Amino acid sequence: MENFLELAKKRYSVRNYLNKPVEEEKLNYILECGRIAPSAANYQPWKIFVIRKPEMRAEIATTYGRDWLIQAPVILIFCGDHSQGWKRSDGKDHTDIDVSIIVDHITLAAADQDLDTCWICNFDAKRCSEILHLPERLEPIAYLSLGYRGKDPVDPTRHLTRKPLQDIVTFDPTAS
C-alpha cells in the first residue's frame, strides 16, 4: 500500500480509457470509500448515479460535448440535494462542498485501485436532469469518468506543476 502523498501524486485527470470493464469488486470498494466521506453535520446531501450501459453513457456524453467521455466504461454522476445540505448561520449552503468531498474520496479510492478518473463540471446540468428524470430537489454537480487508462495523448507530467507551499499557506497570520 502506498502512502497518501504517493497516491495523491499518482492521480491525475485521464481522458483516454481502455475498452475494459471496471470489476464489480473495485467499483463497490470505490463507492464504499465515498459512502463514508464526511459532510457538514453528517447530513450527506448526495446521490450517486452509476452509468455503465453504453447507450446511457452515450446520452450522458451529449451533455458534455467531448467525445472521449463515452470511452470511459463508467460515468459517475454526483447530485446534491440542497434541501438536505447544512447551511451556515449566514445562509451559506455547503451542499456543493459536501459533494466535492465525496467526489474526492472516490477519485483517490479509484487511484488506490489502479483506476483513473476525470472530474467534470462543464456539462449541461438541465439536460442531465432530464435524462436521469431527476426530481427538482436534486442538482447534478459533477461527473467522474472511471476506468483503466489508455494511451494519454498529453504529457502526463503536466499535472506535476504546482505552486510552492509558501504561495498557498500562511502560518499564524496576525490579527487585525
Explain this structure.
It is a single chain. With 176 residues, the protein is an alpha+beta fold. It has a single domain, classed as NADH Oxidase, CATH 3.40.109. It has six helices and four strands, in the order ααβαβαβαβα. Strands 1-2-4-3 form a four-stranded antiparallel beta sheet, sandwiched between helices. α2 runs antiparallel to α4.
List keywords for this structure.
single chain; 176 residues; alpha+beta; NADH Oxidase; four-stranded antiparallel β-sheet; 6 helices; 4 strands; 32% helix
What is the name of the CATH topology? NADH Oxidase
Distance N terminus to C terminus?
45 Å
Poorly predicted spans: none
The count of domains is: 1
**Topology as H/E string?**
HHEHEHEHEH
Mean pLDDT: 94
List the helices and strands and how they pair.
Elements: H1 4-10, H2 24-35, E1 46-51, H3 54-61, E2 74-81, H4 95-112, E3 116-120, H5 125-132, E4 138-147, H6 165-168
Antiparallel strand pairs: 1-2, 2-4, 3-4
Helix pairs in contact: 2-4
